[in-house]
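Render this sequence as a predicted structure.
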Amino acid sequence: MSHNQNLSIVQKLTNKEEEIMHILWNLEKGFVKDVLAEITEDKPHYNTLSTIIRNLEEKGYVSYNAYGKTHQYFPIVSKEAYKKRFMNTAIENYFNSSYKNVVSFFAKEEKISVDELKEIIALIEKKK
């Protein structure tokens, strides 16, 4: 399997799978017990977690190195690539693919300040 996954073919994650991916991105690699140790709330049973991680493997998000019968898992889709796909999908689905709509949504919700908007404008102008 290629380590440069084409994210358009990667399947959507459930909330629990996404939570596990965040743990694996932070750990960079780990056995099921390592992942389990990082879960603070709603700790699943070891076998349940093992199944979730195998699902992530089937969906093309993780791979593993085998050490006898135990597997050490690691992400093969980067957090950056996933974030980009997640944001693009959200912007497409909720904001008619308009980044202007996204920014005005946050401005109306008072989640972004005038100073932060000025910083964004400065970043954009620097790139020109």
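Summary. The first strand starts at residue 62 and ends at 67. The CA atoms of residues 116 and 122 lie 10 Å apart.
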